[in-house]
Structure formats: C-alpha cells, structure tokens
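Human: My hope is that you can spare some time for a protein that puzzles me. I am handing you a single protein, as its sequence and its fold in token form. Could you go through the record with me and say what the backbone is doing? Take your time, and here it is.
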Amino acid sequence: MRRAEKWLFAGVALVGLVCLAWLIVAGVLLWAVLDPADWATVTEALGGRAGLLIFLWALALVPVTGTLRFLIARYITAPARLAEAARLRLDNPVDEPLKVDGSRETQQLADIFNTLITRHREFQEATDERVAEAGRRIELERGRLAALMSELRKSVIVCNLDGRILLYNNRARQQFRRLSGAAEVTGGAELMGLGRSIYTVLDRRLVAHALDTVRRRLESGAESPGAQFVTATPGGKLLRVQVTPVSEVGDGEASPTRMAGFVLLTENITDDMQADAEKDRLLQSLTEGSRSALANTRAAIEILADDEVDEALRDRLLGVIHEEVTSLSERIDELSASSTERLRSRWPLEEMLGSELVDAAVRHLAEEGEIRVAHEGNGEEIWLKVDSFSILQALAHLAGRITDEHSAGSVSLRLVRHGKRAALDLLWQARGEGPSDPAWENEPMQAGNEQLSMSVNDVMERHGGTCWHESTNGEKHCFRLLLPVAEPVERGTGALAGDRESRPEYYDFDLFATTPETHSLDDAELGRLTFTVFDTETTGLDPTHDEIIQIGAVRIVNGRLLRHEFFEQLVNPGRSVPAASTAIHGITPEMVRGQPDLETVLPAFHAFCQDTVLVAHNAAFDMRCLQVAENRTGVVFDQPVLDTLLLSALVHEHQAEHNLEALAQRFGLAIVGRHTAIGDAMVTAEIFVRLIPLLAEQGIHTLGQARSAAQKTQFARMRY
C-alpha cells in the first residue's frame, strides 16, 4: 500500500469518527426537536434510529472522501513527486523541466527547483571543465599506459592480494579465450574479467608459493624480486607464469615497502613443449637407432673387405648397407624437417589484412624505384601471417630484377587464395629479351646499393611457403609468393561489438582496496559488490511451458558498468518460435536454428556470473525461467538476486510507472535494442548503477538492507 493511500484511509477514518460523534449529537437534537409523529415516520423509513444515524454518517463520508483525496493529491502526493523528480535531476542529465500537478505554491516551488537545478548544472559544468583541464595530464599518462598494455606481446594480468583481477590487456583476453572450455559461447569471459579470481585458471598453491618467494626477495632487497613457474590449466594447456610484485612504498623506515598486489606475465608454451618433446624423440631415435644401423653397416663392410666372399653373400650385404643407410637418411630428413619447422615457428610473423600488405607494397615499390605499380584486387578479405618487412624487401628485389632483365615499365600486385594458402602475385609484361625462366629467388636480395645475406627463397622458407615463376607465351609473366593464411582477427560479436575499443584495456585500480572474502555478501556495500545484470527472451510469457531463446548479460564491478565484458547468446529451443513472440523481440526461427541448446548455453552463463549478485528487471520472471531449467540442465543459480522493479518502487514510491521504458525515461537513458536480451540487460545495468546512490540516501547501503527493503514493496508479491 502506498503512503498516499495510507494517508487517505487514515484521514477518512478520522473524519468518519468525527462525523459519527457529530451525527449522534445531531440525532439526539433531532429526536428532541421533531414531533413524535414525524420522528416515527423518519425512523420507520430508515429502519429505526440506528439506521437513520448510519445513513447520515455514510452519506457524510462521500464528500469527505472526495475532499480528502483532492487535498492529499494536491498538498501531500504532489510535493512528494516533486521531491523525487528534483532528486533525479540532480544526478541525471534529464533536460525536461520539472512539471507537477498541485497547488499554486507547489508549482511555484517547481519553478524554483528548475531555476536551482539549472544553476546547479551550470556550476557543475564549470567545475567539470576545471577538473577536466586539471586531469588532462593524468588522462594522457593513463592513455600511454593503456596503449603500452594494449600493444604488449605478452599477456599481462594485474591482481590484488586476494587474486582478484584488476587489470588485463587484450593479449590476456585472447589467451584466456583459447583456454576456455566454452569459448564459442562465452568467449572466455567466464575466466577473464575485472573482479574475477585468477584462481579459476591457476592453482592457488602455486601462486601462493611464488608470492612467498617474492616477499622474501623483497625483504632481502633484491633488485628483481620476481618468481616464475609452469602450470597446467584445467583444459590441459601449459602456461609459463612470471610473477612480479606491485609495491606500495611506505612512509619512511618505520613503514617499509610492502606488496599491494602482483603482476602475472603468462605465456602459452604448450606448442613449444610439444615441439621440444618431438625434437628430443627424434634426436633419441637418431642416436639410438643409428648405433645399430652403423654397427650393421660396419660389420657388412668388414665382411665385404674379404675377397673370398661369394656373390650371393655380397649382394645380401650390399642390401643391408643400402637399407641401413636409407633408414639413417630418413631419420636425418625427419629431424631436419622438424628443425626447419621449429625455426619457422620462431620467426616473428604478424597477423595482418592482406589488402594492407598489398597497399604497403605498392607504396614501397613506388618509393624504391621508377617503376609504376598497380593493384589488381578482387575485394576478398584475406588475413595473412607474415613478416611484412622481409616480404617488402623480397618484392622490391624482384621488381628491381624485372626492371633490369625484362625492361618492364610497370608491374601489378594481386592477392588471391591458393588452396589453404594465399598467393601474392607480381605481374608484368616483358618488353625485351629476358630469361624465360629466371632464378631470382635463389640469389641474394638487393636493397638499394646494399646486398643482403638472405634470398627470396630464404624469406619464403621462414614463412613456411614457396615461390616460383610462371610465363605465358614468353610475354605475360608472374612471380608467385605462396604465403600462410591467418585466422581473421577477432572483431567481436553481438549488438555491442562495434562499441568496443582496442584500448584502453580493462582496469579498475580500486580493486586493490577490496577484500570481498572478508565480508559476507549481505553485509557488503552495494558499491563494492560485483553484479551480473541479465535478461532473457523466451518463446512466450509462461516460464513453466515456454523456452529461453536468448540470454544477455553484462557485469558491474565497483559501481562501474563494464561494457566490454558481456554475455550474449541465442538458444535453440527445440521448438518453433511463435510469430507473436517474434513481433516483440524480433528473434525468428531461422535465427535460432543451428544455435547451441540450453544444456550448452546455461552452464556457460552460470560460469560467466559465478561469484556475483544477479540483477534483473522483473527478476521473478527471469529467475523462474532459470529455475524451470534446473532439472534438465543440472545448473542451479543460488546467488542473491536484486530486482530493479522493486528497487524503483522503493525509491520512487510516488511514481505511477516502474516499467523499463518509464525508468529509462526517468533517468534520461536511451534504450538500444529494446526487447533484445543484451539491450534490456544493458539499460537495466545503467538504471541499477543510478539507483545505488538513491538507495543510499534512504539509508540502504548493503545488499542485505536492499533485499530486505525490496521485499516490503507491493510488487514483491509477484509470482510466476
């Protein structure tokens, strides 16, 4: 029951009691004034004296109720709505002025509030400008740090002493994606994220041992107080981990340097270890197997040295020698191939778009010589894994030889797919007599006036590729470089992928000061907790019979919405999607066809939101959907849950609407992708972030206080 309704009922009851007392007095007076005949007629018509009093009392309540309702709405509810709206304007950029229906004094108060809010914003803007000016230098330094972190070749993860991740770079995110058991669904987000524990991947005992080593080295004053270890991940990958302390300098000798956190540099060495093991196997095979082969060969040669050996035995011995030498040659070839492949794997190759390499080559060749260069493109996007510098050197050498030998005035570059590789073609039209089959790939490359030690063939071998020359009728020539193809660089999926930035990478230094393990969740402050705000889309509105067809979620850490760390996945419901549902969320049967089923998606979502508090709008519906799926999937969501619908009713009890659109409009937010799981989850998260300070103004600071207060609202009775 709203507070205004309580005022109404209390007022009506009070007036009713007053009216009852007055009517009793009036009845006594009427009985004393009216003639007995008139009195008898009136009382008989109303069923006696009591009926007369009740009739007069009830009749008097009608105008009293209307009057009280008007007065309460005008003088109590209207100022309360004005106060709620004014409070919202202070912290949220809503341009619409305050409007309220009430008394003239209340409307005048609204005008004063509008003036004060305008002045407050002008002052706030001026203050923000000064703060921005003062903080530009800090922003520049932070940008430099972010750029450095983003471009580092190693995975960098910074943790506090509890093992909670507070900074990581893009390389770490990609590495953890490869370590994830549900990478196709979560993209590794269940392992890598701000506030998540590093111990979901690394053994806590190994890290603790390394930290003890680091502490001892810090106490001893070592210049490089680091440690490293190799560990196996749950997925069977081998990681080399280097641990470095994040030091906090004390105040003078009484407060020595102590460790506030630690940095992990991780490297996936699975392939290196496998290659080393294979190399050891081949070496052992070569040495152990060669001993018997050499012994057999030596014995055969000693026997063949005897002139009295008959022809049959001589032939058999020659066969043994041939067989053993052939076997030894095969072992050496296998070891040589393995060593060559190992050398290629160590060559620093970068992933880059093929069109960018061709454009760079066109510019480079145009700058190096007088030859004209054109690009024959087919518009196909091909990702290469190359050392662009050595490739450009090879192309420049070949272009120079074309000019010298074939008198060509122009060349063109073409990049096409060639099986599982990519072919970079250098094309030209010969003008003079030139060699029909040039062997330029074997000669040392020429870079200007300098002769290099490498040949084009050397460059191609280190790329694991090859090259050759082709000609048609002796006039049209093509020199083809066969290059390795890389997987397309991850650009992200989902509706919000375009909003991602390559940097800054993801950090929250406030996590240095948090130790969630030392507090129970109910006693923890809302601004310090980690939340997963989620939404589901279903085939209908009955959770007990309809199926989930999409889940979207985003994380909030330390009161910050992490747009980069989100979960978005369509689900194949195993049944048709009704047209009426498609009209709401836009998800068609074709969109869910071929998508993973709920048995695959729900465990991945559970991993994404583990160790967090769940938040949803009208959470009763979404949680019921998850509960219905428990028996089928075996996944139980037992985290605490907060509902923005209930919290809104708690802080805005005088507002009539609490749906998602009304809340978004109230806070000046735009809903992008309404009725999509990720769109609704994102706007719900923004609303929740804005509700936290409003709850604090009402004395609600902890999770336990928020859950207890929310259950007292009228919407808490909703069940599905």
